[in-house]
Design brief:
38% helix; alpha/beta; 307 residues; TIM Barrel; binds ligand PBG; single chain; binds zinc ion
């Protein structure tokens, strides 16, 4: 009877699994800050994607660890960049799996900021061109969804125009619309080597104290052409997910980020929490708050546990 009357259901099709793409071939190494997740070369990523598809998971989102970094993040929009190569490999191996790519410069810039900088200042408008080039290079490689996570103003419009201008009308934009300046990204920055070399991201990411501002950011991104909007992180922002859900008709995604994952993994390793139960409870709470789609490092475990 409990199952009959359950109000919230979550299935693996609603989850997106993040992959971290490294250069080379045959490379597969566990990420110390994200136990159970791996740095993967393009060929290994294709193998991983096949496993993800077989588990019935809705898609993957790709992050890149380039061979080299420079002040303008050139490898982020190189045709043969790590994410571009992995996208091609995954699309060829598993044509039915949805491939999303993260669009941001911080993994590719020598200073670790999400845009080009002048001294200690991030320049918004000059960054838009580079983000649009990156999104376009991902689309050319076969990405069906591009996901800008940079939080520069105007980037959704710039990316939409670039995609449409090159014949990629069908490539969708999942905008990280309400992305907070959060301490929960620590393990990811370790994994992606994207910690800013000076300053922080508070000039463009949101103040954790604000919710009206999140709705404003969402409205702007929708007006610029976003197809789905994301709230990030998830757990400390369930009220924001709910508010966004009630204010737009588009699909709402939530990112169950690296720090949320790492806290559960660490406590589970100590035997202090029951990992399976706490993961199902956590993901269900994000879904209950209103997320249609959840990006999570737990995706493969969840799919196995609920099969
Ligand atoms: C890059 C980006 C970040 C995350 C996703 N894309 C980190 C940041 O903004 O510093 C975080 C994901 C996670 O913590 O799991 N802009
Ligand atoms: Zn960034």
């Amino acid at each position: 009877m409990r199952s009959l009357v359950r109000e919230t259901r979550l299935v693996p099709e609603q989850l997106v699994y993040p992959l971290f793409i490294a250069p080379g071939t045959g490379y597969r190494r566990e990420i110390p800050s994200l136990a159970g997740c791996f740095h993967l070369s393009a060929d290994e990523a294709a193998r991983e994607a096949a496993e993800v598809a077989a588990l019935g998971i809705g898609g993957v989102i790709l992050f890149g660890l380039p061979k080299g970094k420079d002040p303008v993040g050139s490898e982020g929009y190189a045709e043969n960049g790590v994410v571009q190569e992995a996208t091609r490999a995954i699309r060829a191996a598993t044509p039915d799996l949805l491939v999303m790519t993260d669009v941001c410069l911080c993994e590719y810039t020598s200073h670790g900021h999400c845009g080009v900088v002048d001294g200690e200042e991030i320049l918004n408008d000059p960054t838009l061109d580079l983000l649009a080039r990156m999104a376009l290079s991902h689309a050319r490689a076969g990405a069906q969804v591009v996901a800008p996570s940079d939080m520069m103003d105007g980037r959704v419009g710039a990316i939409r125009a670039a995609l449409d201008g090159a014949g990629f009308q069908d490539v969708a934009i999942l905008s990280y619309a309400a992305k907070y300046a959060s301490a929960y990204y620590g393990p990811f920055r370790e994994a992606a080597d994207s910690t800013p070399q000076f300053g922080d991201r508070r000039s463009h990411q949101m103040d954790p104290a604000n919710v009206r501002e999140a709705l404003k950011e969402v409205r702007i991104d929708v007006a610029e052409g976003a197809d789905m909007v994301m709230v990030k992180p998830a757990l400390a922002y369930l009220d924001v997910i709910r508010a966004v859900r009630e204010s737009v008709d588009l699909p709402v995604a939530a990112y169950n980020v690296s720090g949320e994952y790492a806290m559960i993994k660490a406590a589970a390793a100590k035997g202090w929490v029951d990992e399976k139960r706490i993961v199902i409870e956590t993901l269900t709470s994000i879904r209950r708050a209103g997320a249609d789609v959840i990006l999570t490092y737990h995706a493969k475990d969840f799919a196995r546990w609920t099969a």
